[in-house]
Amino acid sequence: MRPDDLASLDFEAERDAETTSWQRAAPVGALIESTGPETHIVTLPDGADAHHVELVEDHGRFLGYCDGKGFEYNDGPCAHLCTVRQAAFVGLSDLNGRRITIPPLSSVRAGTDSAVATDGGRIEHIEAPPTGHDGHVFGRPEGQL
Predict the structure, then answer these.
(1) CA 53 vs CA 9, 64, 70, 88: distances in Å
(2) Residues with Cβ < 8 Å from 137, sequence gap 6 or more?
(3) What is the pLDDT of residues 55-88, one digit of tens each?
(4) Range of the domain at 100
(5) Would you say residue 128 lies in a domain?
(6) Which residue has the higher pLDDT, 5 or 16?
(7) Mean pLDDT across the chain
(8) In the beta sheet, which residues pair with residue 34?
(9) Could you give the number of structural domains in the chain?
(10) Distance from C-alpha of 88 to C-alpha of 135, rounded to nearest angstrom
């Protein structure tokens, strides 16, 4: 997932306006399979096709994507994205019994190649150079190579 590919989503506006997407969302009757922390395959009860959905949270706002036409031709989130949001909000599980969550973008960006730091950040493996810019090995007195 590339964050540039994700659209900013306002689920509160969808809910308050009682849009078709929000009303059509069916977290209890839908088939939701989590394929990663931020990715899901969603099939709505009234839909024939499964759709790939990506949804993350970034500092209080939601970013997402769906491969369905409802997302492509809509200004807001489609019913598939609304379904995942509603399912996460009420704590439902997917087809495999895993709780549906919306992870923070920072954890998705960090990937799996680094370790978690105590402040919640990531520690990347950085190899220290064997010598300084002048060719001397660190920790040795000047003039001794």
Answers:
(1) 13, 7, 12, 13
(2) 130, 131, 145
(3) 999 999 999 999 999 898 887 899 999 999 999 9
(4) 3-114
(5) no
(6) 16
(7) 81
(8) 40
(9) 1
(10) 55
